[in-house]
Amino acid sequence: DAGVTQSPTHLIKTRGQHVTLRCSPISGHKSVSWYQQVLGQGPQFIFQYYEKEERGRGNFPDRFSARQFPNYSSELNVNALLLGDSALYLCASSLNNRAMNTEAFFGQGTRLTVV
Amino acid sequence: DQQVKQNSPSLSVQEGRISILNCDYTNSMFDYFLWYKKYPAEGPTFLISISSIKDKNEDGRFTVFLNKSAKHLSLHIVPSQPGDSAVYFCAASDRTGANNLFFGTGTRLTVIP
User: Fold this and answer.
1) Do B42 and A108 touch (CB under 8 A)?
2) A82 three-state secondary structure
3) How confident is the model over A48-63, as a mean pLDDT?
4) How close does chain B come to A105, measured CA to CA in Å?
């Protein structure tokens, strides 16, 4: 059974560009969350989606947006990229909204480098 | 504002000895705590958790202790094995409110054979 899959694994973008990161949750999982991990720090919460609705948003600017599709996969979009957006972007899936904390499974992440 | 803190960025332990990783938190609303292990080029892997109604939870070689009055938790690994070498993240959540996890900055554990 496949785990959480993220694509692409690595990405290099130029300042000002736009990027789309993708996540496929574990089959049957309806909740997807996105985290940003910059070097030397722990992951920071960006968004949570459950049943295609936004259920939580972290302290990130409006340049960050996300959505969840009917098959529960998710996209994270970042507009007007800044050098400081360079980070590992992690997707986590869980069975349902309330189980997020106890049964969150993370993907391997997408390493975004902004130059 | 870092609500979950891991003040030791690194820890080295001899194989077979005990590893103790520490974590402090500031938000008294946190009621669930987790430890994740992360290898390079992989996402964090859930290790063990504890609810605020308990002060200890044990799973094999891993035990987590929670001291609510001190807002402190620790992860004990006994005996430590070389395969335990990884970055360990402490995370906390307020399950009655926001459903997201707050992570510490991580502690890199190196188990020396």
Assistant:
1) yes
2) coil
3) 91
4) 7
